[in-house]
Amino acid sequence: MYVGWQMKSNIVSITPDTPMLKAREIMDTQRISHLPVTDGKARLLGIVTDRDLREAWASPASTLSVYELTYVLQKLTVNSIMTKNVITATPDMTIERAARIIHDNKIGALPVVQNEKLVGIITSTDLMEVLLVALGMSEDSGRLSILVRDRVGVIAEVGRIMQEAEVNIRSIMTFPLAGHEGVWQLIMRVNLAVHARAVKALEDAGYRVIVQYTEDLAPYLPKEGA
């Protein structure tokens, strides 16, 4: 999956001479938290966030009266608060790479640039939606997990068990189990209608299935060599 497939391409942007009050109004109206700043011809110059505007409102100028503050903010433009060294993505960047960049840099969005032109934006909210879809999260699905050794063929083995039980796996993912080297959580979601059948099939095959939070994972740990 790539950024270009998930980005928002109907971009709301502003120019450096946009008043802060206008930027605030646009964010509130559009219900967004990030405004790319362009030269009016799609060339990216910077970005303004909801946090930038809130910090500007909380500056020493806030000691002025309401009328004086409104007057000052009407005169101030986003050019004075926007981030100019913007971290960007490209349409052919993978979703996981974009997620890593957002996470590592503690930012909420990546403007997407192609051929020096702003073509979209992808936010942490967009990435969360991708994650939820990839995990198969829905009201008509149920979750189950097993703890397995990191070994070749384990996913194929589980898939065969589900196939023989005529259970369709809606999503599957693996995640290392903290504090247990070489042990991974294998997490699946299946239709609620066949959830009990999936659990029984795995248990009949010798797996201990986790269907709810449990503090003591010792009984669920795979045996050595399993």
Automatic annotation (TrEMBL):
Pfam name, any one: ACT
Keywords assigned by UniProt, alphabetized: CBS domain
UniProt cross-references to SMART domains, sorted A to Z: CBS
Domain ACT: 143-219
Gene3D superfamilies the record matches: 3.30.70.260, CBS-domain (3.10.580.10)
PROSITE patterns: ACT, CBS
Residue ranges of domain CBS in the record: 7-63, 82-139
InterPro entries: ACT-like_dom_sf, ACT_dom, CBS_dom, CBS_dom_sf, Diverse_CBS-Domain
CDD domains in the record: CBS_pair_AcuB_like
Alphabetical list of PANTHER family matching this protein: CBS DOMAIN-CONTAINING PROTEIN CBSX3, MITOCHONDRIAL (PTHR43080), REGULATORY PROTEIN (PTHR43080:SF26)
Name of the featured protein: CBS domain-containing protein
Organism: Desulfoglaeba alkanexedens ALDC
Source taxonomy: Bacteria, Pseudomonadati, Thermodesulfobacteriota, Syntrophobacteria, Syntrophobacterales
